User: What shape does this take?
Amino acid sequence: MSKPYDLFLGEWALDVQLCHFEQGEVPLAATYHIHDDDQELVFDMSWTDHDNKTHQISLRGEPDGELAPFNGGDLVDALSITVVSSHELNSAAAMNGVVLMSVIRRLSPDGQQMAVLQEVKLPDGEIFRNKSIYLRKQVH
Assistant: This one.
C-alpha cells in the first residue's frame, strides 16, 4: 500500500550550485537519504564542509504532525514531521514548546528535485533561511 510520502523516499544528492545559505556555508557535497522504518520516517544526512570534514545526522519520527520528545541535547527537545501532500513534507524542532527550526521539503512536479527550505530562529530573535536543492540519485 502506498503512503503519502512515498515520492520522497530514496537517495538525494546536493546540487551546490543551486543553494543559497544565509547562515553557514553551502557544503562541498551532501547526501540525503529518506526511508521509512515501520511507522517512522528516517532522515539520514551527511555532508562535507569546507575543511573536508564529514558530518552525519539522523532524525526519525512518526509523520503525524505532532511534536514528540526528541533528544536534541540543549538545542531541541521535540520534533514533528508533517506530510502536507505527496509533494510537501515538513518538519519542525522545538524547545519547551517553541519552534526554533522548521524545514519545508518540496518536490518538483516530476519528483526528481527536492527543495529543502530551512528556517532557524536564534535566541535573540534573528531568523536565518537556507535553501538547498537536492537531485534524486535513486528511488528507495
Q: What stands out?
A: The chain has no helices and eleven strands. The first strand starts at residue 10 and ends at 14. The chain has a mean pLDDT of 93. The radius of gyration is 15 Å.
